[in-house]
Each structure stands twice: as C-alpha cells, then as structure tokens.
Amino acid sequence: MNKAELRKFYLQKRQALSEAEYTQLNFQVYQQFFASIDLSFINVIHTFLPVTAKREPDTWLIIDRVRREFPHIRISIPRTDNRNHTLENFYFEGLHQLTTTAWGIQEPRQGTPTEPEKIDLVLVPLLAFDQTGHRLGYGKGFYDRFLKLCRPDCLKTGLSFFQAEKKIEGINELDVRMDLCVTPEGIIKFSN
C-alpha cells in the first residue's frame, strides 16, 4: 500500500476500536513504555498531546506518571505553526496552559520555550510504522522537521497499537526514522 492508502487503512482501523479495546491498548502501551525504557538518564521528554477522537495513543497516562514518579524530568509539548508546518515547543506547566484548536488538538497558549537540543526523548505520533523504523504520520511533515532539530542521541520513540508493516512505500530523505516503537506487545528497536 502507498502512504495515502495506509493512512486511510490505519485511521479506519483505529476508529473501529471499541471503547474497551482502546482503553486496554492504551494501558498496555503505557505498561510497556515504563517496563522497557530507562528514564533515569532522561531530563526532558517531548510528547504529543493525544486527539482521543482520532483514537491516538493516550499520552496523558505517561505524562501523569512521569510527573508523579520522575519529578526531575521536564515535559515538553508542541504547538503547531500551520504557516510553515513547524512545531513550537513549550515546557508543560499544567492544564491551565492549554487551549483546544479547531482540529481538536490541545496546545499550549504560552509558556517557556523548549530548545530542541535539550530534549532527550520524543514521543512521536504515527498512524503506522515499518520494520526499518520509518513512520507514517498525517502527511504534513511537522515531526520530521522537528526531529531534524533534535540531538542525534535523542530517542525518537513511536507509540502504536498495531504491529509494523513490512515496508512503507514512498519513504524519502525528508522522513526521519525512529529509534524504537512501543506497542502493546513490547518494544521494537531499530538499528541505524
């Protein structure tokens, strides 16, 4: 399948999840994340905020536990700049900081900017991924542009309810590979 076909397929697959399945998959991804990733050397985590209406993995579960159990870790969240398809990143201060866009995305209204080189781990949104670590997003390139600004040793981490495709057709030099992907069954590491 090409990128457009895969996007459509995985959007439909996520929408077909029952509330119970969605809740269970979120809990499994959350458990695998904390069981598989050593956070002791992480100072800043960047994460997308989920659009639950699109059945995106619920990163609030991870955010809440990090804030409770790893107080030394700062959370960074994105705000989209639709004029040039880039992300502005801010440290998460609390729910009072958030507003919801016309597309149903929660974003910070204001805050202290996060410099990309300070980020140690990025939770990357995706619709699908393949066995080599390439991801399929919504097609605007926001995260590919952002990930190129991060340090080479920053852990680019996908969250997916589904397993890897063999290969995503149409990958190009603008597409940034992930280092690992967390699924309900475990963590998949990609060699660079």
The string of secondary-structure elements, in order, is: HHEHEEEEEEEHEEE
How many β-strand stretches? 11
Distance N to C terminus: 24 Å
Helix amount? 10-25%
Number of helices: 4
Task: Give the overall shape, derived from the CA principal axes.
Answer: globular
Mean pLDDT: 93
List the helices and strands and how they pair.
Elements: H1 3-15, H2 19-36, E1 44-47, H3 60-69, E2 74-81, E3 86-91, E4 98-100, E5 106-108, E6 121-124, E7 128-129, E8 135-136, H4 142-147, E9 155-159, E10 180-183, E11 186-189
Parallel strand pairs: 1-2, 1-6, 6-9, 9-10
Antiparallel strand pairs: 2-3, 4-5, 7-8, 10-11
Brief summary:
The protein has helices at residues 3-15, 19-36, 60-69, 142-147; strands spanning 44-47, 74-81, 86-91, 98-100, 106-108, 121-124, 128-129, 135-136, 155-159, 180-183, 186-189. The protein is α/β, with parallel strands linked by helices and 192 residues long.
Provide a descriptive summary of the structure in words.
- 24% of the residues lie in helices and 23% in strands.
- The mean pLDDT is 93.
- The longest helix is centred in the N-terminal third of the chain and has 18 residues.
- It is globular.
- Strand 7 and strand 8 form a beta hairpin.
- It contains 4 helices and 11 strands, in the order ααβαβββββββαβββ.
- It has a 7-stranded mixed sheet.
- The chain is of the alpha/beta class and 192 residues long.
